[in-house]
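Supplementary notes for students who missed Thursday's class. We covered one full example, reproduced here. Read the sequence, then the structure, then the short commentary at the end.
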Amino acid sequence: MSIAKSLPTRLRKFLRSRLLHTGVVFGCLVVGWETWNAHLNAEPSLTIPAPPTLPSPNSYDDLVRIANQNVEPSSELWNSTTPTPMSGVSGAPPSGAPLLGGQPPPGGPPGITPSGTPPALPAPKPIIHHNTDGERRAALAKAEPALNALRTVLVRHIAYRQPDHKAESANPKFLSLARSLEFEARLRERDGDAVGAAESALIAIPIRNSGGE
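Structure (token representation):
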């Protein structure tokens, strides 16, 4: 009599069910592993999208045009004084002029040093010029056409997109336009126009970012 027949009927059914369950679980593991392995080794399917179409009209073109016509005020106008050298002043006295004190140097005629050259006068002191708000306003007036054109573009709410081939290159003229706005904000603040100063400063932020900073 075989061993399978010698086992009780319930035990034989239990062993068959266990073997069946084990086989099913093992088969599922094999299928899952093969599926996962095939997924990992599959060649990726990449679709490169076409470059997006730039909006037309594009505010980027307007910004370039405005930045080109901008005349940036000099930041040195915010200095309290600007030294200006004197013109027409030489370090040596005119030919034939008497020496200081009216006494000739030993060993030479009046007005001539022993080395044969006229003596040098002290270096002239620079003329100190105090910059005024009027000068600052006059400098800002040259940038006002560009700044007014910029505000007109912002009010129109035209779509803006920087071309991809220019996205990584800084435009120094954008930075110059931003500095003009910051100059305007500082002057408005001195005039007591806090709202106008904040408006100019806020506009300058994205313009400066467009310039690469």
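Commentary. The first helix runs from residue 3 to 6. The radius of gyration is 43 Å. If anything here is unclear, bring it to office hours.
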